[in-house]
Amino acid sequence: MNNLFKGLIAGYGAYKLGGGCLGTILVFVVIFMLLGQCS
After folding, report:
1. N or C: which end of the chain has fewer CB within 10 A?
2. Measured between alpha carbons, how far is 20 from 27 in angstroms, rounded to an integer?
3. pLDDT for 6-39, tens place per residue?
4. Any transmembrane segments, and where (predicted)?
5. 35 in Cβ contact with 1 (< 8 Å)
6. What are the sequence ranges of the domains in the chain?
7. What is d(CA 34, CA 8) in angstroms, rounded to the nearest whole number?
8. Do 2 and 36 form a contact (C-beta atoms < 8 A)?
9. Angle, CA 10 vertex, CA 20 and CA 38 arms, to 5°
10. Residue whose C-alpha is closest to residue 13's, from 2, 30, 37, 38
């Protein structure tokens, strides 16, 4: 999977699920890592 698409998907998920600044960053990293494991 392209890094740009991984970043966009992770960013959207972090925006929807993240509570604050730190939570959003944490969710972004987790989703980005999970997407990296899938491909």
Report:
1. C
2. 10
3. 888 888 888 888 777 888 888 888 988 988 887 6
4. 12-35
5. yes
6. 3-38
7. 14
8. no
9. 140
10. 30
